Amino acid sequence: MRLRHLEMALQRLSGFPAPRPELEQYATPAVVAARLLYHAAGEGAIRECRVLDLGCGTGVLAGGAALLGAETVAGIDCDRGALGVARKNAAALGVDLDLIRGEVGGRFPIRADTFDTVVMNPPFGAQRRHADRPFIDCALSTAPVVYGIFNAGSRRFVERYIGDRAMITAAVGGAFTIPRTFSFHRREAVEIAVEVLRIERGAGC
């Protein structure tokens, strides 16, 4: 599947039915999701791999990974409503996803090293400081390679946080357009610079 075709497929998916600000529930833009997945696929981290979408929301990354030929794809999210939309989006794409309700950083059914690749769009920490840390911790315990979307400029923080556990081995820039979603938003849309980081365990550590 070509990058543009993947973008078009993901653009048709439904978003959050009732987005919650404390969870920073913003739909992952199709162009950013497709770029992350295509980049990962080009490095052999999607096709015929066991992929986990951590904090999957409405299943944009999970669905895209399935379209690109992942062996199995699971998604975990704490929001029952978002998971319901993810199931409908999976059906619309014609893919199978294993969707699980669970709290990242809390108790949920994932054993260490049960996946080959983690893809994620974790909270940026705008509502709760360091909200992305449990996602990083969980991702590193779950798979040897992680592709995540972070605020531009976060690389130094992420490097300090992961310490000697792993290493950032690639970074790809992009833009994340956030439409007016919550009552405290004053503008119709805001564009935020982001970067997709590839984090690998045992990569020179």
TrEMBL record:
Q: What's one GO MF term for it?
A: S-adenosylmethionine-dependent methyltransferase activity
Q: Which GO terms describe its biological process?
A: methylation
* One family name in Pfam for this protein: MTS
Q: Which residues form the Methyltransferase small domain?
A: 47-129
InterPro entries registered for this protein in UniProt: DNA_methylase_N6_adenine_CS (IPR002052), rRNA_MeTrfase/Polyamine_Synth (IPR051720), SAM-dependent_MTases_sf (IPR029063), Small_mtfrase_dom (IPR007848)
Swiss-Prot/TrEMBL keywords: Methyltransferase, Transferase
* Coiled-coil blocks: none
Domain of life, per lineage: Archaea
Q: Which family does it belong to?
A: Belongs to the methyltransferase superfamily. PrmA family.
Entry protein name: Methyltransferase-like protein 5
